[in-house]
Amino acid sequence: MRYLVTGGAGFVGSQVVLALLDQGHEVAVLDNLSTGHQAAIPQSVLFYNVDLMDYQATKNVVSQGIWDGVLHFAALSLVGDSMREPFHYLRQNYLTGLNIVQACSEVGIKKFVFSSTAALFGGPERPDPISETAEIQPGSPYGESKFLIERILQWADSVCGLKSACLRYFNAAGADLAGRAGEDHRPETHLIPLTIDAALGRRPALKLFGTDYPTPDGSCVRDYIHVADLADAHIRALEQIETRSVAYNIGNGRGYSNLEIIQSVERVSGRQVPWEAAPRRQGDPAVLVADLTTLQRETGWTPKFGKLDQIVETAFRWREAHPNGYGD
């Protein structure tokens, strides 16, 4: 099969590119490299340096290949930044999503996989765990922008016949099992790489935001999914959308606390993690964990690398080997 991947130079997009290549598919990447890294794109992959805000350039790329499907990862993705720059996030993510969906619909693409988010479920009464039937109430402009694209895809299916899979991630983590790709955000905001960097002495003491939550150890609990498992879920989702559109919550199915992350990094690295308690961040819920029932029932998918130390170990190996990320 031939697939076009937008945002394929980013953390999750590059992992899915590798997974598709490993299965023998032909892949092309569309990315403007605003947050991604060209070094994350394998040399065998055709690369289009295009900004999705440019509709005509986007449509030209979509029109060039007989694509069996498009996977859309390109987006601004920092919740905190979206609270500071709400209109920038809403405009950028909505318009780039609209442009790629419109181009696919006009060219006649039949399959579309969308990188959505668990930030859709931002309401105060979140169930635990969170299923696809939970109330959608985004708690940030970032989450709202993703929901708007899900709505675009519903209309693209109803009017144009474009079948889609909206995959609502919880916390993607880890690195490629063979060490070919890893996490390199600038600035880095994710807990596991920040904790690893603190253990390696590359940053000051880690700040733990909140130690008085109603959880077993007082710190927040989050659902971390290994990127290899996440990539596998994307490929299985492609198989589900021959005749219908779907939406799945994707996580590990269990939660790990912030203190458990620190302890795992210490076990894996053999180093102590310097950390200090800090006040809670506004809007941080105590627990966020995915209900995997629908995804497992419909696709047969299950996480293969669900143990926390497995996730942390691959992330640590990649980060230790690449102190400057893709700058190495």
UniProtKB/TrEMBL annotation:
Its EC number is 5.1.3.2. InterPro entries: Epimerase_deHydtase, NAD(P)-bd_dom_sf, UDP_G4E. Its cofactor is NAD(+). The keyword NAD applies. CDD domains: UDP_G4E_1_SDR_e. Keywords: Carbohydrate metabolism, Isomerase, NAD. Pathway: Carbohydrate metabolism; galactose metabolism. Belongs to the NAD(P)-dependent epimerase/dehydratase family. Homodimer. This is UDP-glucose 4-epimerase. It comes from Gluconobacter thailandicus NBRC 3257.
